[in-house]
Design brief:
heterodimer, A: two-stranded antiparallel sheet, 13 helices, B: two-stranded antiparallel sheet, about 0% strand
Chain lengths: ~325, ~300
């Protein structure tokens, strides 16, 4: 491992600048996708205290539905805007439907239980959804790259990269980030969400409908997870198991940042996304392991994640 | 009552293996799953759920594979011992770090470590054979070279012996001072420490014990399959262990084996009649168990027994 680490560092010093830029572009686009999914996960985690394993299934459903919508739209000579709307619409639909089903159908029943049982409940939901997804869309790879071709490419320095991945995905990610922050800090409804996070009983006593806030948070988080999948759909082909890969990765992001840390998740996604794409170019065999190594190292030094505030232990 | 059930179950296992020779491999696998899930159940008694214990199955199985390659004359029993020792060593070192964490961080840290090892096993082709895995040639069984069928029968007997020994031993452990202290980590860790006991120390002991159990199961698994692939350390396998220990319940050491029996039966049934929706069946079962019987099958049995005791 020290040898590999050495190659990695040595290589990143001397790798050609083109390759470096390419790795950077890959990293940014990947980090943006990762961030959208992690944002949903960390929101649900922060407000409801549930680590939602089924989030991976939401990502996959978002991706599949977006591809499906795009393929349907392609029959009617759609404009670029329509294609983009297909992606967004898929995310809204999946978030609203699956989010509601998961929250009211399953999680509400274990609300007062042990966190472990809540976690297992979402794990069970994940298994069920994986098979349902396989029943609906089969095991063939599913992809709809049409929007990428429409938007063309951009050149920066000497590197050519698709505009969709380099500009559209990061912008959507930043918009979701800004939108979420605005919602939580500057709207009455968002402030209610924050209030429920801080003290559920007190918030209820003040007349906040905590159940409805719970539903809203979950649907919002589910939408963000599905949005990550929908935005990813044109760039990769959806295959069974895509959700599982994504959920473990976004866990790594959320744990690295600290549970419920929204701005922290942005930095952690960038850290993990960029390091991973550097690893793809420099030490491909370490690609899968890199995010977890980062997470392990961060947790060893800061047991509650990079950006979390230390909490007093409750007796 | 559960102890009686355990005897009946293990004897039934043996009889089934003798009557239907095809059932030997699934039975051994069910016993392997049982041992590994018992390991996970130990941690669950402390309220900690590990989503990465398949790591130790991989360590056990790959130690066996490496040793069997380098020293083909090694005996089955020696190989198993090596597998267990390997996972004890790794579990001891990893345990030093992970026992400092609780709840979701404990689970995630275990998951991350197992993912690192899992991906390395798949990538280091020269050492581990990549995703194709490593073949393990059938080793001698107490200095006797056996045919496949006889070897499987012997392995079944050996696994049953281990399983029975483990149910007895681990149940004793659960009821010992150390085991009760372990359960106290779940109910109130702060008070436990006020009693002068180190929660980390107790958890570390339990962690090493659970790593040893999962390692043993991995080593057996490798031997009965004759092949080790990285899949044995995948996070999904860890999830299955958690599933089984929830299904069986951690109230009694036999719970894990009960859960594993049901799990393997459902798996065989689903593979035969409902291919493709196997995960769906598992998921729905898990939801029903959590909603209706959060303490697992063992919890149901114990509750019935308590109710019967109250009425008479």
């Amino acid at each position: 491992m020290p040898a590999a680490l050495f190659t990695f560092l040595w290589g990143s010093l001397f790798m050609s600048s083109d390759l470096m830029l390419l790795a950077l572009a890959d990293g940014v686009s990947y980090a943006a996708l990762l961030f959208m999914v992690s944002l949903g996960l960390t929101l649900i985690c922060g407000v409801m205290g549930i680590v939602n394993v089924a989030h991976g299934a939401l990502y996959a459903f978002g991706g599949y539905t977006a591809s499906y919508f795009t393929l349907m739209a392609m029959g009617h000579a759609p404009s670029t805007f329509t294609l983009f709307f297909c992606l967004l619409g898929a995310a809204v639909l999946v978030g609203l439907v699956l989010g509601t089903v998961l929250e009211t159908g399953l999680l509400r029943w274990v609300q007062m239980r042990d966190p472990v049982q809540q976690l297992l409940m979402t794990f069970a939901a994940f298994m069920v959804l994986e098979d349902i997804q396989r029943l609906i869309w089969g095991t063939q790879p599913y992809s709809a790259p049409d929007i990428i071709g429409r938007l063309g490419t951009v050149n920066f320095f000497d590197v050519t990269y698709t505009a969709y991945q380099l500009i559209v995905i990061p912008i959507v990610a930043l918009l979701s980030y800004a939108g979420l922050l605005f919602f939580l800090h500057f709207t009455a409804l968002g402030k209610q969400v924050v209030a429920v996070t801080h003290h559920r009983e007190m918030a209820t006593a003040l007349g906040i409908h905590a159940k409805r806030i719970g539903w809203l948070t979950f649907v919002l988080g589910a939408f963000l997870g599905a949005l990550g999948g929908a935005m990813a759909a044109p760039t990769t082909s959806m295959v069974p198991g895509a959700g599982a890969d994504m959920i473990v990765l976004s866990f790594a992001v959320v744990a690295t940042a600290g549970m419920g840390q929204i701005s922290g998740a942005l930095l952690a996604s960038l850290l993990i996304g960029l390091t991973r794409s550097l690893a793809v170019y420099l030490a491909p065999e370490w690609e899968v392991a890199v995010p977890y190594l980062i997470m392990v190292m961060v947790l060893l030094m800061r047991p509650n994640g990079l950006f979390s505030v230390a909490q007093a232990r409750r007796i | 009552m559960i102890r009686g059930l355990a005897w009946i179950g293990f004897l039934l296992c043996f009889a089934l293996g003798l009557i239907f020779p095809w059932s030997k491999t699934p039975l051994i696998m069910a016993l392997c799953y049982g041992m590994a899930s018992l390991g996970v159940a130990i941690m669950m008694r402390a309220g900690q759920v590990s989503f990465g214990h398949a790591l130790y199955a991989a360590i056990g199985a790959y130690s066996v594979a490496f040793m069997a390659r380098s020293f083909p004359s090694l005996d089955t029993f020696t190989l198993l011992l090596i597998g267990v020792l390997g996972s004890i060593v790794v579990g001891g070192v990893v345990g030093l770090f992970v026992v400092r964490y609780r709840g979701i961080f404990f689970g995630m840290l275990n998951l991350a470590l197992s993912m690192v090892v899992f991906s390395m096993l798949g990538k280091l082709y020269n050492l581990t054979g990549g995703t194709d895995g490593l073949r393990i040639n059938r080793p001698a069984f107490f200095n006797q070279t056996l045919e496949r069928d006889a070897f499987e029968t012997s392995l079944l007997l050996l696994s049953l012996f281990f399983a029975a020994l483990l149910v007895w031993g681990i149940q004793r452990y659960f009821k010992s001072a150390a085991g009760e202290a372990l359960a106290a980590i779940k109910s109130n860790e702060t008070r436990l420490e006020y009693l002068g006991l180190s929660a980390r120390r107790i958890l570390w002991n339990a962690y090493v014990l659970s790593a040893a159990l999962v390692g043993l199961s991995g080593a057996l698994f490798g031997l009965v399959q004759g092949l080790v692939t990285p899949d044995i350390g995948s996070w999904f396998r860890s999830g299955e262990y958690v599933f089984i220990s929830i299904l069986g319940g951690s109230g009694h050491a036999f719970g894990a084996f009960l859960g594993a029996g049901v799990f393997e039966a459902v798996k065989l049934f689903a593979a035969a009649y409902m291919t493709g929706v196997w995960q769906l069946i598992l998921g729905v079962t898990l939801i029903i168990v959590i909603l209706l019987a959060p303490d697992g099958i063992v919890g149901l049995l114990q509750k019935r027994r308590a109710a019967a005791g109250a009425s008479t």
